[in-house]
Design brief:
Shape: rod-shaped
Number of domains: 2
Largest sheet: 2 strands, antiparallel
Radius of gyration: 38 Å
Structural class: mainly alpha
Number of helices: 4
């Protein structure tokens, strides 16, 4: 036991000692039983904490990557829209991109609505 207290035991020796201490009821081993139990619980808690931190780290990285991708796509779309103003109209299900044709359609619709020329 002196080697254990001076940290001179190997992991195999510590396992053997811990098995022996767990199976004996000798009061001489009460102190070491308490220390080994405390260390055992500490190792379990540390392992759980490390797994939790890794899970949060992974989730944080994924969330940041998604956020960056969304922002990047929005910036790209905004730049594309600023490069050229696009006027689009759908007339009886047909897509029209010609600005002149769209304006003629709007003027025609306004004149029909108001019953006079939109000019």
């Amino acid at each position: 036991m002196l080697r254990y207290w001076e940290a001179e035991t190997t992991p195999g020796e510590e396992r053997e000692l811990s098995q022996y201490v767990a199976s004996t009821t000798d009061p001489e081993f009460d102190e070491i039983r308490g220390v080994m139990g405390y260390l055992s619980i500490g190792r379990e808690r540390e392992a759980k904490r490390v797994r939790t931190i890794r899970a949060y780290s992974f989730a944080t990285v994924v969330a940041c990557a998604v956020l960056v991708a969304i922002i990047g796509l929005n910036i790209r779309d905004a730049r594309l829209m600023q490069e050229k103003d696009i006027c689009v109209s759908y007339y009886y299900g047909e897509k029209i991109n010609d600005d002149g044709a769209i304006m003629n359609s709007v003027e025609s619709s306004l004149s029909d609505f108001f019953g006079k020329s939109a000019n």
